[in-house]
Amino acid sequence: MSITHKKTEFPQSTRADVLQNPVFVGIEQAILEQRIPPGMRLAENDLGDVYGVSRTIVRAGLQALSQAHLVTLRPNRGASVANPSPREAREVFEARELLEPRSAREAALNAKPKDIADLRLHALAEHEAMQENASGRALRLSGLFHVKIAEIANQKTIAEFIESLVSRSSLIIALYWTKSSTRCDEGCHNALIDAIERHDADEAEDLMRSHLVDIHSALSFGVADKEHKTLKDMLGIDLSN
Ligand SMILES: [Zn+2]
């Protein structure tokens, strides 16, 4: 017996739509800030109440979260926060360790002054998010830094793979990270920008490889259970007003 996926239930959205969608923005932030745990069911009615939006908007938000690998959608069972296994987490980082050093090498060979200025601005935004303790924003920005390097490398297909792996890594890091220090160390990103600016391909490749190995080796796969709370409690929204 085959399972019929009713694609029309979860409409496709553009990137701009997604960033306007309060369900996407709110749940992404809550996951990356570890306010809701892996596997938690995300009931459409609850999300509609929490964000005061229609079912169509809830479904569009959930579809976009699923495309970002932050939420799992199952026919007839609805949505839940993705729960990447340790094996999946390792595979994601192994794939990044294969692809990204090569991508950093190409970026060093291709980079124009405008690309370097763009990377430096981005690193500044990451720094600000960390200073403000905005952990979800910092995590998202540090992932985007890696996507930008892949784009500068101008290898479109590989950049698409990297973007998808980075998105999955954000949840993995949010779940399994153990160090108290920042996730993507600021020093590593700045050193990478310096190597790319000097067009030092060997150095950029080595720095990216060791940076990813550092992150991978700081993951720990024993996760404490979160205390039992309702979705509405975890999202921290006061429904009384
Ligand atoms: Zn990084």
Structural notes for this entry:
The chain is 64% helix and 4% strand. It contains eleven helices and three strands. It has a three-stranded antiparallel beta sheet. A hairpin with a 3-residue loop joins strand 2 (71-74) and strand 3 (78-81). The protein starts with 14 loop residues before the first helix and ends in a 6-residue tail after the last helix. Residues 142, 145-146, 184, 188-189, 211 line the site of zinc ion (ZN).
Fold topology:
Layout: H1 15-20, H2 22-32, E1 41-42, H3 44-51, H4 55-67, E2 71-74, E3 78-81, H5 86-110, H6 113-131, H7 135-152, H8 156-176, H9 186-197, H10 201-217, H11 231-235
Antiparallel strand pairs: 1-3, 2-3
Taking the sheet with the most strands, its summary is: 3 strands, antiparallel
Name the helix and strand elements from N-terminus to C-terminus, one letter apiece: HHEHHEEHHHHHHH
Number of helices: 11
Helix content: 55-70%
- Indicate how many domains the architecture comprises: 2
From the spread of the alpha carbons, the general shape counts as elongated
Average pLDDT confidence is 84
CATH class of the largest domain: Mainly Alpha
- Give me the Rg, rounded: 19 Å
pLDDT < 50 stretches: 1-11, 223-227
